[in-house]
Write a structure and sequence with these properties.
With about 80 residues, the chain is an all-alpha fold.
């Protein structure tokens, strides 16, 4: 397959965003992770270097619980009574 002049021009600009993208909605699929999330959970995205160390949710939760235990406890804010 020959490279056209247009494709050669794009090779140098691969890091830049193109002015428009064509998305084929016929090939779209539902988010496979959407059903796992419930109201009591918060979903975060780990940076690649962090995800290399903490590869499971149990590892992340254990590290965060250890951090919480090491933090000095703060006094609870007083709520206004009506």
């Amino acid at each position: 397959m020959k490279k056209t002049q247009r494709s050669k021009a794009r090779e140098g600009n691969s890091a830049e965003m193109l002015p428009e993208y064509r998305f084929d909605y016929r090939k779209a699929r539902p988010n496979r992770f959407a059903g796992r999330a419930d109201e009591d959970r918060v979903i975060v995205v780990l940076d690649p270097d962090v995800s290399e160390v903490f590869s499971t949710q149990q590892a992340v939760n254990a590290a965060l619980r250890a951090l919480i235990a090491a933090m000095p406890s703060l006094p609870k804010p007083k709520t206004a009574r009506h």
